[in-house]
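Renewal narrative, Specific Aim 1. Our central claim is that a sequence can be written position by position from structural information alone. The example that follows is taken directly from our test logs and has not been curated for this report. It begins with the structure tokens describing the chain, in the order in which they were read.
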């Protein structure tokens, strides 16, 4: 067995969260090994947020052009996927090449090791025949992969996940989307706007089932208006592929056919690959539970999707900030202890981390390290209209026994909504804790639903009293001014 190499920190998985941790710690002067088995940057830049939002930007441009009729004359729209595919290939992903990200990490002093990392005992990580022993700890940021349900016949077919949907160069004529969650709806609308015949099949009784029912209704209506067929309450039972077309057979004798089948039924963390048993942890869980400083156990942290706190890039980044502060605080303490006892630096290596940490001005003791708080977790589904939400839904609040007040207003009844006319579907829904006099949840659906959400996130995060929200000035005529109407409606 190879002799373990001593380093300060090992980061396994350089997706959004892991890359941020690895880069910032390397920048601060720690010796950091980052292990990545695919592309540095992970899902978001190559097969997730960024390319999908480029697709949405293009699809929304088509939709806006189609709205010219009746507002500003006439417009003829001829969709062409080629510029979208080109932009994703050339601008977003460098043809799925991570050289820029890899060089950025190594340029900051980090050491990139390609391969699959797994724990090999406390503080130890193995990758191939290399073994690293981490002085300060190990950070796990291995994310999630598509969760593909065990539907009869599916595994033997050339179905798509988000990877093939993002990489597509030529659009199919028809597409079945299995799963009516955020990713399924975003991609379904994009492809429909480019002329693909899209059918969404969802097992639950509504699409976007984690959000408010009113949001599901608006989103479903918007997609239907784009020509998407939506079937809810249909459990997929069997998938067949005859060499050209897919047939999906569902509960109640339903059957759907299309050229392609996109499976977007959720994401799964693959914990069994991580050697968790070597540090006494249960790998059979769905996610890796963490405390409010992202500790899995002593000297092992986790960030991002793997923690199960929300599969969003902003969660991974938020958690990464806490992990970075925690590790730096511990490294400084260890360094100060070693200096006081006159021994050589424990955070050192060739880079002299002890002195550079001191110079970096990183905050001091563990007492100042922030703790994760997910009360005001924002989430946006980038359909058109956008569905933005923060905190609890009305049902979640009621289930918690909170004395709930609800305020609701349609965007179309606001001045800006009325001016906007076509494409103004949406609403603001507020969920308040009547006893505390604060908002604990809100949903903002509309053409700029994700942007309007920001004011509501501040209100939930800072527990701004309702009395203050009612007595502030909302610019006229903005979409966000509808928040004031929803506040008036709170009862
Ligand atoms: C289509 C789509 C659209 C999305 N849109 C949005 C959006 O608009 N906004 C948003 O906030 N979020 C969005 N997301 C979610 C977002 O992409 C994820 O939440 C984010 O990428 C999670 O980051 P992460 O660091 O947890 O893991 P990931 O980005 O999944 O990265 C994990 C990395 O770990 C590597 N890895 C795994 N196991 C090992 C191992 N054993 N050894 C070495 N390396 C390993 C993987 O190769 C990968 O590179 C979207 C996701 C998808 C699929």
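The sequence written for that structure reads:
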């Amino acid at each position: 067995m190879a002799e373990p190499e001593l380093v300060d920190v090992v980061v396994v998985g350089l997706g959004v969260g892991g890359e941020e941790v690895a880069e910032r710690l390397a920048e601060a002067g720690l010796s950091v090994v980052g292990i990545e088995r695919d592309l540095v940057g992970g899902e978001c830049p190559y097969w997730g947020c960024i390319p999908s939002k480029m697709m949405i930007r293009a699809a929304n441009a088509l939709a806006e052009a189609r709205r010219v009729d009746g507002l500003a004359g006439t417009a003829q729209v001829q969709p062409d996927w080629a510029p979208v595919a080109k932009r994703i290939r050339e601008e977003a992903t460098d043809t799925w090449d991570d050289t820029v990200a890899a060089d950025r990490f190594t340029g900051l002093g980090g050491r990139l090791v390609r391969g699959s990392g797994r724990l090999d005992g406390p503080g130890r990580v193995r990758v191939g025949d290399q073994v690293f022993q981490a002085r300060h700890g190990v950070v796990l940021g291995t994310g999630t992969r598509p969760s593909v349900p065990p539907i009869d016949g599916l595994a033997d077919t050339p179905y798509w996940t988000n990877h093939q949907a993002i990489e597509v160069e030529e659009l199919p004529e028809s597409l079945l989307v299995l799963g009516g969650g955020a990713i399924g709806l975003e991609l379904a609308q994009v492809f429909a706007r480019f002329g693909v015949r899209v059918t969404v099949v969802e097992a639950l009784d509504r699409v976007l089932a984690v959000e408010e029912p009113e949001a599901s209704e608006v989103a479903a209506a918007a997609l239907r208006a784009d020509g998407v067929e939506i079937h809810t309450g249909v459990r997929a039972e069997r998938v067949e592929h005859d060499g050209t077309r897919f047939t999906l057979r569902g509960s109640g004798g339903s059957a759907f056919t299309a050229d392609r089948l996109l499976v977007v039924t959720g994401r799964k963390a693959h914990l069994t690959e991580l050697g968790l048993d070597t540090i006494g942890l249960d790998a059979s869980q769905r996610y890796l539970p963490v405390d409010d400083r992202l500790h899995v156990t002593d000297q092992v942290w986790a960030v991002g999707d793997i923690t199960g706190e929300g599969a969003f890039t902003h969660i991974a980044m938020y958690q990464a900030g806490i992990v970075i502060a925690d590790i730096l605080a511990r490294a400084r303490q260890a360094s100060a202890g070693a200096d006081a006892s006159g021994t050589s630096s424990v955070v050192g290596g060739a880079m002299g981390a002890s002195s550079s940490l001191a110079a970096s001005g990183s905050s001091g003791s563990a007492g100042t390290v922030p703790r994760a708080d997910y009360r005001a977790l924002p989430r946006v589904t980038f359909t058109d209209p956008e569905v933005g939400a923060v905190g609890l839904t009305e049902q979640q609040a009621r289930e918690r026994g909170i004395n709930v007040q609800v305020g609701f207003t349609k965007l179309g009844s606001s001045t800006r909504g009325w001016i906007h006319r076509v494409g103004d579907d949406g609403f603001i829904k507020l969920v308040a804790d009547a006893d505390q006099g604060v908002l604990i949840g809100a949903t903002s659906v509309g053409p700029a639903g994700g942007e309007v959400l920001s004011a509501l996130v501040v209100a939930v995060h800072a527990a701004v009293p309702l009395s203050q929200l009612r007595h502030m000035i909302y610019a006229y005529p903005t979409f966000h001014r509808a928040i004031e109407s929803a506040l008036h409606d709170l009862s």
